[in-house]
Here is the input.
Amino acid sequence: MTLQPVRNLAQLPAPLKPLIEIAYGLRWAWNYNTRLLFRRLDEALWEQSGHNPVILLETVDQERLEAACCDELYLAQLERVVRHQRTYQHIENRWFCRARGQDHAPLVAYFSLEFAVTECLPIFSGGLGVLAGDHLKSASDLGLPLVAVGLCYRQGYFRQRLDEAGNQQEIYQGNDFERLPLQLEKDSQGQPLTIALAQPDMPVKAQVWRAQVGNVALYLLDADLPDNRPEDRAITHRLYGGDNEMRLRQEMLLGIGGYRALQALKLGPLVYHMNEGHAAFVALERTLHLMETHHVPFAAAREAISSGTVFTTHTPVPAGHDYFSPELMDRYFSNHACALGLSRRDFLALGRKDSNNEGEHFCMTILALKLASYSNAVSRLHGCVSRQMWKDLWPRLPIEEIPISHITNAVHFPSWICGELKALYDQHLGPGWRDDVADEQAWQQAERMPDKDLWALRQSRRAKLVDFTRRRCQHQLQRQGASADQLQAALSMLDSQALTLGFARRFATYKRATLLLHDPQRLARLLNDPKRPVQLLFAGKAHPKDVEGKALMRQLIAMTKGPAFAGRIVFLEDYDLEVARYLVQGVDVWVNTPVRPREASGTSGMKAAANGALNVSTLDGWWDEAYRPQVGWAIGASQAEGDPAQQDQRDAQALYEVLEQEIVPLFYERDEQGLPRRWIARMKTAIQTLSPTFNTHRMVAQYLEKFYLPASDRYSLLTGKGLARAKALADWKVRLRHNWPQVQVQMVSPQSHDLPADQPVDVITRVHLGEIDPQEICVQLYQERTSAGEVHPVIKATAMALLRSEGSGVYLFQARAAAGTEPSRYAVRVLPHHPDLACPFIPGLIAWT
Here is the structure.
């Protein structure tokens, strides 16, 4: 049913006019008291509108509005919310200004192809969008000077509908931007602000919508305009829709169009953060703009832009990265290459591992890695995987030093922790935890929460999850034409007192949603134990083109209908933010079973942990670094072994065993008061241990300290005085590359490359530098030590001091090898050195013994 407007928002009664600003502020998406203002006007309509305050205010009965105007309690609550929002909007009250002051506030632009801020703004598909939305929310809470850029999809991602056989059907519903909490940006004449993007046949126009995510402006480009051709309007119809050419056009609009939109809005970010390779064209467009405005060559502009560019990769498998054929790139970028002053070969080389391979496709991740001075993966393990994946870009560098670091993903606690638990945290941690979520000392106070209160809350949230599941399943059955008996049975499925396990994520084969189904008889015994029952809740969407993922879904849904599993295993249709909240807030155990190491991070388990649930997972993604025996359970080996089918069998066996022998007994072990004391103790330990780290306040602050501030400083330095230092750096690199073949390590003493333990050794080396000045290089003593029980070697690189010149470009260097408890091997290497070089490894120049 479509809700038709009965008024425009200007017709709201005067006492309720502040609701308009609140509706468009989007902070209500993570502030319970603010959201309650809309729910109290008409709770049924709030649900029917998809939690959209704009539609609610347009359609709510006039009588309810008039009643609210006469309700002193409602008006008092409205006044409190307005007052609190005004305080929140003063950035001097936020963490960034308190910690950094207002004098050093570089504007950061965050680009992503999808954002999940709230369910009524469906411009996201899954984890990448949720992470991006949580990033913006924490940036707003912390007061970071940040803006964001994405695309405004007319249909967005699909709604999932399942038929009786479990076949996924993709339903695309149109978004009416005028009835979403979006505002159209206008130019100085009051007309919609538009940008133009060159295409092979004719330019494409896009207008700009703004979603105000608290203190952060999210600008969304919309190409669905009457002036554009139908095929051009389709660029912003569907997220991840269409063929490879459509993906290229979307990424051009995001990167190139997004940069032009910020210019049209007269915003001048110093730092650009590309969230995944989709956004990499922004670095090219920014380079071109700097070339045109400062009349500098590509090399100098590239150095400047690179210094202020951050890139985050999320994808741990090669097939998940975007590649475009040389012919497609020729069609769309031949003029762009000319404008950059690059030959076809040099332009395509920006996206290739091997610049001499004319058949190699153009990779967006490679483009991002080559144009960003700061690159990171999204967990410690994913950092290892990414360095291995892209090592060919730095062929002579040890894997551990490939310049891709990591900042582990996290979640925005105010968005995901249920209101009742927030109140319990307020009572025992103190209200300050909300502003400083990463404060370890505050989280230690979780031990003070009374067991009975924490368990009562857990029981309550599980009951709400069961009730939500019953209602949602009944609605699904009604749509499928189910009988009255089937509808009635839906209201009695699940048990609000039973141990409840949750599994919800994208239905990709490597996530192994059906791992628990390997032994149906064993699973049936586990679920149907009359004294210790267990129930499973599943949710997730398969990509429309993922045939294997859809097959897994059908297999799972078929099992839910069998007599042994009916009412014990439930698949929730149309996984979205609302379903996710109910699940992570209501389950007792969160299950995650990806094939290691194919899960980059996985934030759903973090959301569950913040709500007091415990995790059982393979040692992949975030769990590889978060797991401790006191906070959850690990299944499988730390390394994938042998045949994949055998690995699945071993991991399934391990999962059954940990459920049967540890999880189920611990959950049902009760004292005389009916409390599972040891289970509650583990809940508290998980909250204390995981919460200070796996929250986006920590994550965003880490991006600030590690990337944003250094990038801002370097960009300002290199672009000052007409880009003088950027030009000098570019010229230096050209000269260094020309002379680098002369660099040779001619002698090392002692000659043995094995160093004893606990004995320092003086090492001397003779290096031929030719025309290169010793001040332009760094000679390092490189030690590698593998300790007992360590998987990765311990590396130490010590700068060697210049002893003297021996003439003809030959120099002696010396250093003392560090002593250790284990023997080590050493080598000598030469790297570039320049004060304006962000990282000595990025140029890819290195000479070894």
About this structure: The CA atoms of residues 167 and 701 lie 43 Å apart. Residues 450-694 form a domain with the Rossmann fold fold (CATH 3.40.50.2000).
